């Protein structure tokens, strides 16, 4: 294309992740080829191979990045002063970290549960493990936590997943899905803190 700006390597990699996730979600993981991803990016297949040798590497990259974000949030929470208010701050940090692109990852997992499970089994649950540990840390901040508190905190952290599921079939913009998840998470945390 004349006049089109060339992407650098990091931009190409990032765009490849976005395009691949869109295609995987729209037409299925198995039905999507590396050729289709390269064509959608406007690059040749060899250029895509430079960044990702196969489709699994693309998925691994998506989940590794999100897993790193979950681990970073856990590390941040571990460094904070211990108080019940940390529950709200940590939960909302997680929900607020979502973007339209990250919602697409949840949609992909919803439509391809066996692939997501196989990746988690092969490489460990890079997202769920730190979120589970974060949940335990947050529940431990309560004066007399019980099982219901633990469930409510986990529900607050997973409010984004519930919002994506609830929006299926509705013509709702991603910004509204994220806003709904934030409102639900905040309500759940307020319930925990009021108990």
Number of domains: 2
Task: Average the pLDDT over all residues and give the rounded result.
Answer: 89
Q: What is the ordering of alpha helices and beta strands?
A: HHHHHHHHHHH
Shape: elongated
Give me some keywords for this one.
2 domains; disordered N terminus; mainly alpha; Arc Repressor Mutant, subunit A; 195 residues; HTH_TetR
Q: Nutshell version of this structure?
A:
This protein is mainly alpha-helical and 195 residues long. The protein has helices spanning 9-27, 34-41, 45-51, 55-79, 85-96, 100-111, 113-123, 128-139, 147-157, 159-166, 174-194.
Describe the structure.
With 195 residues, this protein is mainly alpha-helical. It has two domains: 7-53, Arc Repressor Mutant, subunit A (Orthogonal Bundle), CATH 1.10.10; 63-194. 75% of the residues lie in helices and 0% in strands. The chain has helices at residues 9-27, 34-41, 45-51, 55-79, 85-96, 100-111, 113-123, 128-139, 147-157, 159-166, 174-194. The radius of gyration is 19 Å and the shape is elongated. GO terms for molecular function: DNA binding. Residues 10-70 form the HTH tetR-type domain. It holds the Pfam family TetR_N.
